[in-house]
Q: What sequence folds into this?
């Protein structure tokens, strides 16, 4: 089924849920030229606005943003990705399978402007919602991870890029027939080995528990007091703190927090 047929099928009510139609159209449009693919995405966006499916409209706008980016239309790409984010915010949607891809596009736009802290904040936002992208939505799950990996590579964060590419490989083993995404993944997979520099873990390797602990490390509280406040064993807090220091290349809570503020992961 071609992309326009997938879009038409959803508009006529042939699909139970819109996202599979959108992804099927996306997958089908991969082999054609990007200019040729633009029309179905525009149709899909209009359909989303009419049917009130904000998640799917957001994904469609992201696809249009990627097309614009491929043609070096950076301003247009940024406008489209911001529209996608605005649609979800207006619908009061804070957790959506569309958000990681939106964050990836916003991070790429930030990198193009030279705003590294903003790019890192987008990566952190995407990281919290990456678990939503499973093999149930294989095209979107792989595509979002590829776009996020591009940003990690642009930041010379090899560990972050490799983590994402391992996720891509796992998904492709389950869902191998994803059109040109397979080739994109192969090309991107080869890039980390070409980059020089130490393979440090970095901020991208921080776990969710470590990210929660990070802001508290700059306070006057001891590990025992932090443990009581967070209802965790002191040994757990100490272990997490040591892990944070190791990953960030620091030796204290103040240094770790300062480092994360430099990277744009923490505000203030």
A:
């Amino acid at each position: 089924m071609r992309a326009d047929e997938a879009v038409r099928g959803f508009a006529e009510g042939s699909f139970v849920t819109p996202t599979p139609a959108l992804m099927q159209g996306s997958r089908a449009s991969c082999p054609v030229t990007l200019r040729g693919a633009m029309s179905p995405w525009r149709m899909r966006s209009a359909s989303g606005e009419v049917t009130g499916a904000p998640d799917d409209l957001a994904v469609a706008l992201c696809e249009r943003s990627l097309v614009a980016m491929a043609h070096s239309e950076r301003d247009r790409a940024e406008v489209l990705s911001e529209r996608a984010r605005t649609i979800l915010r207006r619908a009061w949607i804070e957790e959506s399978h569309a958000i990681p891809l939106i964050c990836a596009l916003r991070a790429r736009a930030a990198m193009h402007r030279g705003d590294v802290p903003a790019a890192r904040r987008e990566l952190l936002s995407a990281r919290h919602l990456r678990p939503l992208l499973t093999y149930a939505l294989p095209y979107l799950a792989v595509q979002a991870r590829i776009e996020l990996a591009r940003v990690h590579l642009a930041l010379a964060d090899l560990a972050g890029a490799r983590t994402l590419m391992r996720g891509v490989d796992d998904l492709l083993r389950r869902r191998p027939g994803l059109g040109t995404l397979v080739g994109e993944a192969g090309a991107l997979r080869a890039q980390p080995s070409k980059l020089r520099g130490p393979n440090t873990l970095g901020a991208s390797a921080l776990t969710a528990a470590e990210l929660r602990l990070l802001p508290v490390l700059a306070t006057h509280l001891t590990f025992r007091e932090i443990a009581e406040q967070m209802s965790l064993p002191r040994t757990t807090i100490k272990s997490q703190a040591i892990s944070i220091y190791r990953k960030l290349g620091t030796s204290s809570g103040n240094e770790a927090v300062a480092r994360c503020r430099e990277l744009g992961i923490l505000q203030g």
Observations:
- The chain has two domains: 3-194, 206-263.
